[in-house]
Amino acid sequence: MKQQLRFYPDIDYRVHPAFRDLGVPARDDDSVVDGMIANIDRDLEALHATRYHAAALREAFDSGPGCRIAELAAYLDRTTSNERVRRLLSRAFKDVTAELLYEARIRNDRHEFNRMLSPQARRVADDLKRDGAHICRLTGAERQKLWELCAPAVARLRAAAALNPKTRVAESMPRYSGVGVRLEKFFRRSGALDGLSAYFGSNVTFTGFSLEYSHNKQDWWQNCYADVGLATSKTVYMHYDHGCRNPKAIVALSNVTEENGPTGYIKGSNTKPRSNFIHFLIKSIDLRFYDDYVAGTRSYYRRRFQEVEYRREFLMLPTALQACSHFGEDITDDTDLSADLLKDEIKLTHDVGNCVVFDGDYGIHRGALAESGERFVFQVIFAVEPEIPKIKALQQRARAIARRLLKGE
User: Fold this and answer.
1) Cα(first)–Cα(last) distance of the chain, in Å?
2) How confident is the model at residue 292 (pLDDT cuts 50, 70, 90)?
3) Which residues have CB under 8 Å from 369's CB, separation 6+?
4) What is the pTM for the complete model shown?
5) SS3 string of the chain?
6) What pLDDT digit, counting tens, does each position of 78-90 carry?
């Protein structure tokens, strides 16, 4: 199969130690599916290259890539024997169609997007285009103030971790809280918001954030393939975020070292060749996988790959769909792919910086794997969306602050 029809990175699961002896025969229609995917990608590329009025865009999508996506969905429904796999694909295809239409609207707006950039914002945009990430630094005084404002949340997270020490713990925080206002001011002052807007060719807004606590008793990321004697890989938890247009930032409150879970980003991974359609579809499949075990009985986060019955179902998919957005544990240590990813990884330790802004939807990253000590970081989410009038933005902010004041937050 041509590289551009694949998900990146391209992992051959049929030779992986946890999959190779399961006895699931390969489908004999990969060339048919590959051809249908190529047609979808071709139509998406043509759609994105043309400027449409709103109504015409929907019509062009429905008659072009939307129609071809429906054809592929119907073909796989006819040719897939396992009922649970068919249901999973059906849900995922509905999601990916809606996601790609929204993506087309965002890209359509790029034809008219233009913004003057400060020198700081230009550096952010250049770093994002080259590496997919921009590293910067809050001052000591800024971090100290954030620590003070977060003291109650820090106490709550430590208490929650004491009750469930093996699982991830985080707390969403109000967008217009004192912490949120300070973070937004930093991202504006540093040029991050304008730089992200230039990188995406569309308006980018600061939409929300949470505080995450990582410590060395957590094991949610370990031992996916212990049943076949495979140790946790060196590329463990390398992944793409499930979103499709939500750039991200990690702001470290703690002094982060190699041992307490630094954020890592794979330079240039955002520009690797891949199928646009498959990149979206794999995320939709991952999100639509029904995890039906009793909550709390296991801490590991990828049941679909940990249990044999789901591995079998995974191999029933066409080769182009045998991929996962959270793939780090699936890469064995003895491969060139593992060596290449590790070679290009930038780690956000305290001597490098304490904030990284990055394209987490198309760029590979990981973090929170604390082997000793603890780590507190803000996970910040941005949104790529059309710009709204300033007066409306001020009204939305005023209403949000008023609601918080009424609730006594």
Assistant:
1) 55
2) very low
3) 214, 221, 236, 237, 261
4) 0.92
5) CCHHHCCCCCCCHHHCCCCCCCCCCCCCCHHHHHHHHHHHHHHHHHHHCCCCCHHHHHHHHHHCHHHHHHHHHHHHHHHCCCHHHHHHHHHHHHHHHHHHHHHHHHHHHHCCCCCCCCHHHHHHHHHHHHHCEEEECCCHHHHHHHHHHHHHHHHHHHHHHHHCCCCCEEEEECCCCHHHHHHHHHHHHCCHHHHHHHHHCCCEEEEEEEEEEEECCCCCCCCCCHHHCCCCCCCCCCECCCCCCCCEEEEECCCCCCCECCCEEECCHHHCCCCHHHHHHHHHHHHHCCCCCCCCCCCCCCHHHHCHHHHHHHHCCCHHHCCCCECHHHCCCCCHHHHHHHHCEEECCCCCCCEEEECCCCCCEECCCECCCEEEEEEEEEEECCCCCHHHHHHHHHHHHHHHHHHCC
6) 999 999 999 999 9
Domains within the chain, CATH numbers bracketed: 1-111+271-316 (no CATH), 119-268+344-407 (2.60.120.620)
The amino acid at 116: M
CB distance 371 to 216 below 8 Å:
yes
Q: Write out the two tokens for 53.
A: 């009025």
**4-36: buried (b, 16+ CB within 10 Å) or exposed (e) per residue?**
ebbbbbbbebeebebbeeeeeeebeeeeebbeb
In this predicted model, what pLDDT tens digit does every residue of 240-250 receive, in sequence order? Answer: 998 878 899 99
Whether the ω angle into residue 174 lies within 30 degrees of 0, i.e. cis, is no
pLDDT exceeds 90 at position 13: yes
327 alpha-carbon distance from chain centroid? 12
| Residue 386, phi then psi, degrees to nearest 5 | -60, 145
pLDDT by residue (tens digit) across 255-264?
A: 999 999 999 9
The confidence score (pLDDT) of residue 111 equals: 87
Confidence grade of residue 295 (pLDDT, cut at 50, 70, 90): very low
Tokens of 319: 């080769």
**Tokens (6 digits) for 354:** 């304490």
Q: Report how far residue 110's alpha carbon sits from residue 130's, in angstroms, rounded to the nearest whole number.
A: 20
